[in-house]
Structures are given as C-alpha cells and as structure tokens.
Design goal:
Helix content: 25-40%
Strand content: 15-25%
Low-confidence stretches: none
CATH architecture: Alpha-Beta Barrel
Strand order of the largest sheet: 5-6-10-9-14
Order of helices and strands: EEHEHHEHEHEEEEEEEHHEHHHE
Radius of gyration: 18 Å
Number of helices: 10
CATH topology: TIM Barrel
Mean pLDDT: 95
Number of domains: 1
CATH superfamily: Glycoside hydrolase/deacetylase
Length: 282
C-alpha cells in the first residue's frame, strides 16, 4: 500500500532554526501557503486522487479557508500539532495542550472529528512513550509519527519493521503507520517525502516506489515552491536539505501520481488486518 499525505504548514516552518523557532516570529514572514496548497489541490483534483492532510492548528486559525478548501475536496483532515514544536522538547502537559489546541482549531474549521495525527519531525520515540498516551487522551486513534531508525530528530530505531503496527502503552492502543525506510550502506534512507524526495532523481524514485510494498509519503507545500525566500542564518547542510531540488519537485510529484496508485490513510487502515498486525509494547 502507498499512502499519500501532506503536512500543511508554511514555508518557514523548518525545525531547529532560530529565525522561525517560535510562534511570535512567524508574523514577520510573508504568506505563501495559499498558492502552494492550491497548486497541490488542483493536481489532486485532476488526478482524482484523495490524500490525508496533517494540518497545523496555527494554519487553521490564521488561514481557515485553506483547511476548509482541503476538506471540501473530500480529503482527510488530521492534526500536525498547533505550534510545530518537537515532542521531546515539551512536557507531557505542554504537548497535550498543543495537540488539543490544534484539534479545536481544525475541528472548528471542518465541523467534524479529527482522529489522525503526525508529530513535527517524526519526533515521537522510545524516550517519549507518554506521547501515545496523550494522543489517546485527545481522541487520536491513528498516528504517523514514528521514524523507525535513527535520524536528526531522534527517531525510533527499536520500533521494528516499517509497516502498520499497534502501539500499546499502559492499557491504551493506537494504530501506527511509520515512515518507510530502506538501508543504504548500512544506514537508513528515506525517499518518500521532503528533502529526500527532492534529492533523488526520478528514475531512482520510480524504482524505490515500485519495490515498496508499504510506503508512507509526506510532502509539504514548500517542497514545490521554487521561489520561496531562504531563511536567514541557516547552516550550509540545512540550507542544502531545505532548498535543494525545489525547482523540479512538482514535476516529479506529478509523474509519481501518473505512475503509481495511492490511497489516503483511512482507506489504508481499512485494508490492514489489525488482528494480525505486530504489537509494539512500550
């Protein structure tokens, strides 16, 4: 199964960057999300493709029309927190408030319950099992926050195979759809979203997607915006990761939709035999 998802955030929502780290600084940046989301929605409508959109509560409050447009086109609406902060840098109480704020804002926009979630930076790991408890307390039943290997924001190398699983923590159970990873020279490599997708030439992407029995994509509006400004004071490696390949990314994405069949998260969940799914107990 190949699952199509987007993280709906602004171009400046890059993690671990002082210039845009906190919400009080976001008002100083230009708005680009309207045109970038509209471009995605037009393509999805042309391809008759449904997807799951993990939306920031901040976007729902600042630009509610965007969330409503996504929902009106029949796409699934999910939470990406409210303030786009790493989970492991928050207390359980602060994280719960952040998730709850996002759900209130998003549900006010679309008029329906939101029960799916993805953490910024895939930042739920073995050190934060309490995060799954918080999600369950907030009414989340499906999560896409696990990176099942080491990576820049911690990762979860002990999670097991990259496939749908049940996460069990002190009596609560959530359905988990982790990011898919492959091993390259003994190191984990992701190809299905973000800077990794922009980095790979399309023939390689096609091969990797064709081989993957399970694939969780994660695109951002900024991934397709070649004219976005560059955030100040970025280290060179972060600038490369955040801006390389922007000009050709949308054409690659369109080819991907032509060549493969994708589904949204809810449909994917209905195809899983959860009685036979692995259980990760924390």
């Amino acid at each position: 199964m190949k699952i199509l998802t987007f993280d709906i955030e602004e171009w400046f929502h890059i993690l671990d960057v002082d210039a845009s780290r906190t919400r009080d600084r976001w008002a100083g940046f230009e708005t680009r999300i309207h045109a970038n989301v509209d471009r995605i929605l037009r393509l999805l409508a042309a391809k008759q493709q449904r997807a799951t959109f993990f939306c920031l509560g901040w976007v729902a409050r600042t630009h509610p029309d965007i969330i409503r447009r996504i929902s009106r086109q029949g796409h699934e609406i999910a939470s990406h927190t409210s303030s786009h902060q790493l989970v492991y840098e928050q207390t359980p109480a602060a994280f719960k408030q952040d998730v709850a704020d996002s759900l209130h804002a998003i549900e006010d926009c679309v008029g329906k319950k939101v029960s799916m979630f993805r953490a910024p930076g895939f930042s739920i790991g073995a050190a934060t099992p309490w995060a799954f408890e918080v999600l369950a307390e907030c009414g989340i039943t499906m999560d896409c926050s696990v990176f099942p290997a080491r990576h820049g924001h911690g990762g979860f190398p002990g999670f097991g195979q990259a496939r749908p699983a049940l996460v069990s923590v002190r009596g609560i159970t959530l359905k988990e759809f982790p990011v898919n990873v492959i091993s390259v020279l003994g190191k984990p490599f992701v190809f299905s979203g973000g800077g990794y997708f922009r980095l790979c030439p399309y023939p390689l992407l096609h091969r990797l997607f064709a081989k993957a029995n399970y694939c969780m994509t994660y695109f951002h509006p900024r991934d397709f915006d070649a004219d976005q400004p560059v955030l100040p004071r970025l280290p060179l490696h972060r600038k490369f990761k955040s801006y390389y390949g922007l000009r050709g990314a949308f054409a690659k994405f369109e080819r991907l939709l032509n060549d493969f069949t994708f589904t949204d998260l809810g449909t994917a969940a209905s195809l899983v035999d959860w009685d036979k799914a692995p259980v990760v107990t924390l």
